[in-house]
Structure formats: C-alpha cells, structure tokens
Amino acid sequence: MPRRMLRPLALALALGMAALAPTLMPSSAAADAMAGGVTRIKDITTLKGMRENQLVGYGLVVGLANTGDTLRNAPFTEQSLTSMLDRMGVNVGSDQLRARNVAAVVVTAELPPFIGRGNRIDVTVSALGDARSLLGGTLVITPLMGADGQIYAVAQGPVAVSGFSAAGEAETVTQGVPTVGRVPNGALIERELPDHFGNMRSLILELRNPDFRTAVRIADAINVYTQTRFGGRGAYERDYRSILLVNPPDVSPVRFLAEIGDLPVTPDAPARVVLDERTGTVVIGADVRVSTVAVTHGNLTVRITEMPVASQPAPFSDGQTVVLPDTRVEVQEGEGRLAILQGSSLQTLVAGLNQIGLRPAGIIAILQAIKSAGALQADLVIQ
C-alpha cells in the first residue's frame, strides 16, 4: 500500500469514540484545568478522626391525606400509634383504630464532627410500611441514636417530599419517590461528641485518593511554607495515604490547618479507565496511554420473525384448519475496518475514537479487547 494512503488511515483511526464525543472531548476551561491540575490541600485531604457519625431513629409521620399505612397490613404502625396515644393519656383500643393518615418511618441523619449542642441538622425520612406518599405529613418527635445506643439528637417537623403519586380507578401516576422525604434543620443536637482537637500536637492528613507522589507533593508544599513562615519543617509523609503534621509552637491547630489548607498542589493519580456496561458510561483518565495495536470492529445482527399462516381445507371436505409456521431469518453484518490505534495522549485517544463512530457498547468492547491484548497501559475498572 502506498505511504500516502497509510498516513490518512493512521491519522483518522488513531483511537476514538464517536458516541462519547460530547462527554469526552474537554472544553477549553476543562483543558486548562487538566493542563494545570492545581488544587488546594484541603480539597484533596481530610483530617484523621474528623468524620461524620450516622444516626438512626424510628418514628411516626402524621397528617397524611389518606396515603398512610394500612394498620392491618402494618401492625408495627398500629402498635406505635397506640403507644404514643397512651403516653399522651388517650386510651384507645387497637380494634378501634382505622386511620390512614399515619405512617411508620425510619429517620436517618449524619452527625457532623465538632458540632455543638443546640445546633440543627437535616434528616431523611423513609416510609417503613405500605404508605403511598409522605406528602404533607409532619414527623412527630423522634429520638436519633448512634451506634453506641446513646441519643444524640431529636427530630421533628414537616416533611418535604419532591415526588408525588396520584391514583384513580384505572390509572396511577407517580413521579419521583413520594415515600422518602427530608426535614430541613429538623433535628436538634442534644449530645456532643468527645472533642480532643484542641489538645492535639500532631495532626494527620489523609488523602481522599491515596497516591505516593501526591503525598510527597503535599509534604513538600507544607515544608516550603513552614520553613518560611515558622522556620522549621512541619510535615512528614508517612505512607501513600497520610501525612504527619507537626504543629508549630504558639500556633493553634485551627490556625495552622487554615493556613496550610490553601496551599496549592498538583495531585497525581494512576492511569485508569472506568467502564459501566449498564449505562454505557466510559471515563478515561488523563494519563491513559495505548500502545500501537490493530483493531477491527463489526456488528452482526440476526433477526428472526415468526409469521404463522392458517391453512384452510377445501369447502365441504372433512379437513381441519391448521396453523403452519413460517419463520424468516435475516442476517446483517456491518462494516469492519482494520485500524492501527495508537494513543500517546488523552486528546489523541479521544480524537481517534470519535472518528470510528461506535456506540458506547462497541467502545466498551474495544477497550476490553485492547486491555486483554496488553496494549492499554491503565487499570481497567468495570462497574
């Protein structure tokens, strides 16, 4: 083949994905961010020990417009309603309850670190029985417990539901999830977590995405700042996940973390390709490289159609009507072009794949095959 015919073929089929052109081709702003990749330390790290704690509780939502639990189908709702009325001095027999405006719910929330008593947090309310909707309901006072069994907050308030459900005799319309809602600022903190932050002399930063090079860059950036600001070294990389900080004398940990949190660094990450076959999503990292490899991809479609034919007997005969099968099979095979693929950068890889003109399923199949051939220099993560 002449050389001038090989050049357009290699250029046009370098390595591309047509179906992912809108999502994979970076814009000018994204290209600038990818070229620099500079971010603040506090955006890629967390302080060890500073985390949320989960809270959970069981309660009742009242005031529903005949969309609550059926008490006979949800006995726990009936028992809870009877117990609540007994505590309020109302003695009601279980055989007299026929309400449909009450629903049993599970209330969940996250307790932020260092939050004080008297502050408020949002809670999520989820139906536990056969309630159709929590729209318009109000959560009755519900204690929220932690994993240790202690009560840390108490929730109460109107439930905000984004979805709705409307039903008639012949049709039902549902939008969103009407059985889950939120109570903004619905929980009041009653117990604080132990706080030892003020007495810490050594702090540990943990990377959200662990990487050896990123840990070293963070430690170097902090040391350059502390040498100039405090005259000493303030960070030591422990491993690929954590950096040990040495709090300078006469400086509070809060002020020290606030100062180093705004230092810019360039995080690093291993080359990785993430594939989601259920949704057809493909995410390719900036450092993904593809060695030279030849690829061809063609689609084979087989269509089988059943068209039964009724065979009628002649008039005044003793024959019977029978149904004879009639099967039609059609086979179509799309074009399959052999392409030499080589991606030295993300832009080259995406630009080449965009020109092949494949659907996401074909793109995923090609990337898996390239990885099996050993030409994809990246981790392949399949979800």
Walk me through the topology.
Elements: H1 3-12, H2 21-24, H3 28-36, E1 39-40, H4 41-44, E2 45-47, E3 53-62, H5 75-87, E4 102-111, E5 120-127, E6 138-145, E7 151-158, E8 164-167, E9 172-175, E10 180-189, E11 202-207, H6 212-229, E12 235-237, E13 242-246, H7 253-261, E14 264-265, E15 272-276, E16 281-284, E17 289-295, E18 300-306, E19 309-311, E20 322-324, E21 327-333, E22 339-343, H8 346-356, H9 360-372, E23 376-377, E24 379-382
What is shown here, in short?
The chain has 9 helices and 24 strands.
Descriptive labels:
4-stranded antiparallel beta sheet, alpha+beta, 24 strands, Alpha-Beta Plaits, 6-stranded antiparallel beta barrel, 9 helices, 383 residues
Percent of residues in beta strands: 25-35%
Distance between the termini: 42 Å
How big is the Rg? 32 Å
How many structurally independent domains? 3
Principal-axes geometry comes out as: flat
- What would the average pLDDT be, to the nearest integer? 78
Q: Can you tell me the residue ranges where pLDDT is under 50 for at least 5 consecutive residues?
A: 1-35
Q: State the helicity in percent bands.
A: 10-25%
Number of strands: 24
Major β-sheet strand ordering: 3-4-5-10-7-6
Outline the biggest β-sheet: 6 strands, antiparallel, barrel
Which structural class is indicated by helix and strand composition?
Answer: alpha+beta
Treating each run of at least 4 consecutive H or I residues as one helix, how many helices? 9
